[in-house]
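Convert to structure. Protein one:
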Amino acid sequence: MIFSAFERMVAMRYLRARRQEGFISVIAGFSLLGIALGVATLIIVMSVMNGFRAELLGRVLGVNGHAYVYAPIGLLEDYQPLADRLRGAQGVVAVMPYVEGQALVSIQGIATGVQVRGIKPEDFRTRPVVGDSVVLGDEAEFGPGGIAIGVRLAQRFGLRVGDELSLISPRGATTAFGTVPRTGSFRIAAIFEVGMSEYDSNIVYMPLDTAQTFYRMPGQVTALEVFFADPNDIGRLRATLANAVAGQGRVLDWQQTNSSFFTALQVERNVMFLILSLIIMVAAFNIISSMIMLVKDKGRDIAILRTMGATRGMVMRIFLLSGASIGVIGTVAGFVLGVVFCENIEAIRQGIQTLTGTDLFNAEIYFLSQLPAKIDWVEVGQVVGMALALSFGATLYPSWRAARLDPVEALRYE
């Protein structure tokens, strides 16, 4: 073993300070607590950031396509041959034509704009994030005359399944008096809850044929939505999709359409990692200060050990073990605390909200209805490794100073 039984015994004895040395023990305790809180905080924050990214990516790519194929100019016409060709491309699992447009909902003097998406009824039911999130009504009723709206839009206007919803389209008929907006009344067949406030309050799904009639787009669609088996492999699939399109359209993938959003998440994640790493660094400096005070206080003991035959290496290992023990115990405690907190983060949030009576996670601000946390064990390993490295590094200088102490000078005035 690197450390002998004698070195371990003396090192542990120094960690258990006597009453007159209690101040040094208090500093060591705060150093241990700082390491533990720093590691736990870093694990929790990074896990929440990972959870945010995973949840947002899953919902964004579930409601929206992984890639879009638009016409070079205007709308797509005679799109079926192109859709069949795309379905045969490598990695493509589904191709869905859709119509997209803006509309106005006005009920009892309250008006709001919504985004109308016209898709085939079978596509609505096979889309996992949308079809599986129907909370009221039946997705099988989504069809001619029946639409699906988000739960927050329904709550805002007090709508229920079976009610009639009037939509006003900006694409109206042109008359001698100007453009007259087109109005349509549709029965609410289903109410869905995706879990993102932006979608649950702004999106209205409509059958494709009905949307083409409502927006005066006979036989035309806005674009083709393409879904892949692995959307994270979009870099390789982008070229395959471009070859299948063969110049008959423009291709935009999810990384291009949401680049600013996910880039902002990544930048925020990196900045939070750097800022919270400072907590561990401050705790490491506390270890240095406590070890320097311990070396100064134990000068006579070091001199006696040296005169009894202890080598400089033994003295150095004694203080190295004392300081490293603080870092190791603090890191392990922080690791356990961080993992347990992440595994129960939603229950902890609900408990704090119940005690304080405040909303700690407003879905309208943070997009999601629940606080997500996804533990990346590779990242956790990096945090633990960094904490251990800083802890061991913090003990090197005080241990070196203890080993270099001259016994004669230390005992001169004793």
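Protein two, convert as well:
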Amino acid sequence: MKDEIIDSKIKKKALQILEFTDAHLCPRCLARNFYHDIKAADNLERGENILKFLNVELNNESEGNCFICNGIFQSMDNDLIPQILNKLEDLNVEFSTFLVGCRVSEDITQREIEINDLICSDQENIKKEINREIGKALSLKMDKEVEFDNPNLVILVDFRKNIETPKLEIQINPLFIEGRYKKLIRGIPQTKWPCRACKGRGCEQCNYTGKMYQESVEELISPLVLKESGGSESKFHGAGREDIDVKMLGEGRPFVLEIKEPRLRNLDLKKLETKINQLASDKVEVKSLKMVDKSRRQQIKSSSTDTYKVYHATVDLDKEINNEDIELLKTLKIIEQRTPKRVVHRRADIVRRREIRDIKTNLLNNNILELIIECQGGLYIKELISGDDHRTNPSVSSMLKTSAKCVQLDVLDVKLN
């Protein structure tokens, strides 16, 4: 190392630290105080270079008794990496990326603060170095990548009670699979619906199943994926939902299936798609399954009002109308819709503004009307037709000046913006 690398200010601060700690310091804990000032491969090399330049030897006891880390880095070099590798082998999970986190005692944190107060350095945090060095060592041993945003595993090392044999926790992050589903029959909900009477515990009213309905889209898709991945639990996230008596046709509704604590991640999604469609034949069909990251879950869940949907509705009218009457429906554009009475018990009672892009009409006979409606997500179509006692304005009923009821409804398309 060239002498000019360490200027007089760095030299003075390094000597202050060594004097303050009576040289009971490991090279890494010395070097973190100069992380931004001196170039080196890592803090070990940086610290050794500083000591060589100063011609100072550390206290003989310092290897196992560093004033700051109290021997954490020595433990990492000697014992910790094999402990983690054994833990992962016992866990027997499939992963390609990981992230390391750690906890250290308040004493260690406080001692770092004392050094920083002494020399006012732009200090690197000890936990950042611990995480980086463990991550580097594991990556080399396992041939796996460290991933900061969406790791498959998080390895948490807790040094607070025992430095030589710290507590190890392995967090298996969820697996996220996106796809689209069609619901080919009426009478099943999108997700499992707990019995209202017993709240899912099982009672006479639900035949001790704990459910209002014996099947759901979720239950026809999730169990097979859960089995193939070895996960502990699944959650189904749809881009909105259709009513129980409504079919979901066309290209299907986007969804993300979240699998918690999966043991396997390299799933053959084409084969899985085929198996699900065979199992749920004539009820539910899935397509376009693909792996996605965590952020996609929230995008799908919050996408309802950012979508445009196409519906096919059959409408029963109380009086006869003609083609001239139904031309009025093409003027429906901006709808102000108060939360429908049928869902107000579980939705905020507010007025929502939704846009209709297009309406196509077909008069099947004098009081049966067929509608194709393209509209913004979040518009309740049954209430758009009936008016819901004037909670939806304008409506098919108010435009035609007659009572109108949706007798059959299908979703033909869900378009994500």
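The domain at 175-302 is CATH 3.30.70.2510 (Alpha-Beta Plaits). The chain has a mean pLDDT of 92.
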